[in-house]
Amino acid sequence: MNCHERTIAALNREKPDRVPVFSCTEEQNQIYEILGQKGNAVPLSLIQAGITGRLVKLAAPLVNASGWFNREFEKFMAKKLEADIALGYDCSWLMYSAIFNVRDNRQATDIYGRLYDFVADPDGNIDTPMYREGLLTTPERWEAWPHPDPDRFHKALQRVFAGLQRRYGERIYLMGSLLCGLWENASQTMGLAGFAVALRRAPAFVRRMVKYYETLYLAAVHAVADAGLPGFVYSDDMGYKSGPQTSPRVMEEFFGPSLRRITDEAHKRGLKIIIHSCGNVNQLLDLFVEWGFDGVHSLEPTAGIDLAEVKHRVGHRMCIFGNLDIAHVLSHGTREEVEAAVKHALRAAAQDGGFIMAMTNSHNAVRVENTRWMIEFTHRYGTYPLALD
User: Fold this and answer.
1) In terms of Cα–Cα distance, which of 51, 49, 50, 31 is closest to 41?
2) pLDDT (tens digit, 9 = 90+) per residue, 206-222?
3) Using an 8 Å Cβ cutoff, are 209 and 155 in contact?
4) Top CATH class, 3-381
5) Taking 80 as the threshold, does the pLDDT of residue 389 lie above it?
């Protein structure tokens, strides 16, 4: 089987020739190391210190008007795919992250109404901007925010994804995505405290807000399909380490109808669509199935997720992605620890098919060497029929 056939078989809850491996890596330090281009990453000091730092601070409006910052995000997506192909991944999560506006040389906002800090990875290079707070703390502020136009959004995403599909689509199964889902957009742009108040005092406003974000996500789904990609990742962190960020009842009442429309539209366009959520999502797993998702990713072991239990509960209804630990195993673990983690995941969830190996998330502390071991051991032990003893 090739990477496409292998991935599709697993997404259909069948047994491919071997377990596919899924990439969610988005970190500069790892991608440039894989490509042998470690010096190409952008140091944070370049935009914060000295003359260049002062220039960035003064020229923030020009940087935004020129689109330079977001074009760099778009270029980096190609580097990410080149690295994924070089490592031997079968499928890749391709996140569209060109959504930022530079406020000054230390902070940025996004198109939704969040404030971020620029932060550094362990090598001192620019990492993914770190969410600080929501700027739209009241319904009035949300209404006044200049919301992105879904049609323009569709065109931008289609342009980028179509180019990447033409260049890389035959060599790796691509799953397009859009940074921030409906829950994150609704709760983070207001802040969790303000959003909780709005749920009680202004439910009609919350529904209107969620409906708008639905239109953006539908535009993204159509952009991915029009670009010729075969899959879509709906990314929306709904969990804390201890459980869901709000009750399953609230998630179903306010977000369920929109999520069903998103998955329905994806399926009508011929896309496979999976859901990514960090945290302990045990109480949400059945909803993920009911909402129509073909697979679920993250399933963090450090958040109390038992992969075998997930497989037992929903593995006959959706594909399981995961769940190699990035807190220790892939960041600090030995070769033997990575081997043991791979074999544990295969035993827990791969025996009957419908399983795709993946680390739980992207993080700048993950070691490239450990990632190589994850792929190596999946290829070694993940060939069907599995032989793990």
Assistant:
1) 31
2) 999 999 999 999 999 99
3) no
4) alpha beta
5) no
